[in-house]
From TrEMBL:
The keyword Manganese does not apply. GO terms for cellular component: periplasmic space. Residues 3-79 form the 2Fe-2S ferredoxin-type domain. Transmembrane segments: none annotated. It comes from the Bacteria. It comes from Rhodoferax koreensis. This is Aldehyde dehydrogenase iron-sulfur subunit. Keywords: 2Fe-2S, Iron, Iron-sulfur, Metal-binding, Oxidoreductase, Signal. GO terms for molecular function: 2 iron, 2 sulfur cluster binding; metal ion binding; oxidoreductase activity, acting on the aldehyde or oxo group of donors.
Amino acid sequence: SLQPVTLHVNGKRHRIEVDTRTTVLDALRENLGLKGSKKGCDHGQCGACTVLIEGRRTNACLSLAVMHDGDEITTIEGLGTPDKLHAMQASFLKHDGFQCGYCTSGQICSSVGMLAEVKMGMPSHVTPDLNAPGPLTDEEIRERMSGNLCRCSAYPNIVASIRQVAT
Ligand code: FES
């Protein structure tokens, strides 16, 4: 059944009607026409759909739109503009942090959310001994970004892009 939901996307308020099973990803792409967030696996495994919801990186394919009524969502379209790129967007350009580009929106949104997590002192769960004080190591960047896959395997340049913004 259709249900009204209000999403604040990139600073704009949208009142839409969605099926209760509609994901945030489909609401963004189909209802709002924001195609920057990509559908890779649609199962939470690739990270191509990553957006920021209330500042936290989220797999939009795993989140139901009705559960985010009133929430602030930032997509790749809202992080920066062609005239005024977000620092992370500029860094991905500078370091060639992509090849085909399909995973890039997710990589950039995820890395922005990841650096916010680091700033808040959120530990890296998989390998806790990586959480040494000091600048982020490449190893830690790789682990914290392990939810974002790149089929072209542009990982060295992705890590270099993120490292520049992190330091
Ligand atoms: Fe959401 Fe792959 S499309 S994680």
